[in-house]
Amino acid sequence: MKARLVGYALLALGSSPALADTTQEQVHHMSHGVMPFEMSKTVHVFRMTERGGVQRVVAKDPADAAQIALIQSHLQHEYENFKQGNFTDPARVHGSQMPGLKELQDGASRITVAYQPLADGAALTFETTDLHLLTEIHRWFGAQLSEHGADARAE
Predict the structure, then answer these.
(1) Residue 45: what are its φ and ψ, rounded to 5°?
(2) Largest Cα–Cα distance in the chain?
(3) DSSP secondary-structure letter at 22?
């Protein structure tokens, strides 16, 4: 527990834990305290749209029922948080200065978030008619793509 707190403090200060050499390794390490599924067995897929974007988390093995159940449970939980403007979990993984994060929290009432279970995982859809928030959703997706590295891809 103490090591996890030190890792969170280092992330908040913009430093890496000693064991994390790259941003991807740091994010992968920090995700263990937030995401119940195994990052190495899943992939985050981001598709930016004209009204926001779609984030999917899918199991690399479509027959891995345990990972799929964990993905669906986690994204359902995040859906409940995000629609209320609670972006605490992404801040815990990526840091509170993550691009777009503060703006999404502040503008949550102008963003529609939807959850959809999928056969191989789950998806969250973010939509807005506010051009500023649209840009922030795209910045947020871009930051996640960059920081998750090989654990993510764009569509």
Answers:
(1) -120, 125
(2) 43
(3) S
